[in-house]
Amino acid sequence: MTETSPNAENERESVRLRRPGKQDAQSLWRLVCANETLDTNSCYLYLIQATEFSDSCVVAELNGEIVGFATGFRPPKRPDSLFVWQVLVAPAARGKKLAKRMLSYLVRHGDGVQFVEATITPSNAASRALFASLASQLRASIGYTRCFETTDFGASGHEAEELVRVGPILERE
């Protein structure tokens, strides 16, 4: 299933949301490598996400080019949750509320999803705003709990991460 932007002036400017496939993994990896804020993982991880976890991932295409993605999985201990691993929108596609549209797509197409989760650093204001906006749209509560301490990351210097949990979901659009 695909979706297009309701405000697009013409077909060339429409954004198409769809599940990823094996052929998309390198594009996802290249987007992350070009981004300075996300942790860079191996191309292999994006191959696994685009194949084994494609039901909990989405890519956004603009004029036939992947300009964004959201990757996630359904935690085995919390099958009613969608854990969002990474969300990225390329600079050329920003300002279209694409990150929230991709998360909304995953909720709408995620059979039995009642909660959306992710880990976010305390300083990541953009991600906090994204999940707050998603919670508002879904008429769901939002909460934060400590998840990973700085010491859990060893000498990497990585900031602590909090678990954000949106739900239960009351509105799916």
UniProtKB/TrEMBL annotation:
> What are the recorded GO MF terms, alphabetically?
diaminobutyrate acetyltransferase activity
Q: In which pathway does it act?
A: Amine and polyamine biosynthesis; ectoine biosynthesis; L-ectoine from L-aspartate 4-semialdehyde: step 2/3
Annotated keywords:
Acyltransferase, Transferase
For whether the record's keyword set contains Kinase, the answer is: no
The record's listing under CDD domains reads:
NAT_SF (cd04301)
* Stored SUPFAM superfamilies: Acyl-CoA N-acyltransferases (Nat) (SSF55729)
Q: Which InterPro entries match?
A: Acyl_CoA_acyltransferase, Ectoine_EctA, GNAT_dom
**EC numbers on record:** 2.3.1.178
The source's superkingdom equals Bacteria
Entry coiled-coil feature ranges: none
> What family classification does the UniProt entry report for this protein?
Belongs to the acetyltransferase family. EctA subfamily.
Q: What is this protein called?
A: L-2,4-diaminobutyric acid acetyltransferase
Q: What organism does this protein naturally occur in?
A: Blastopirellula retiformator
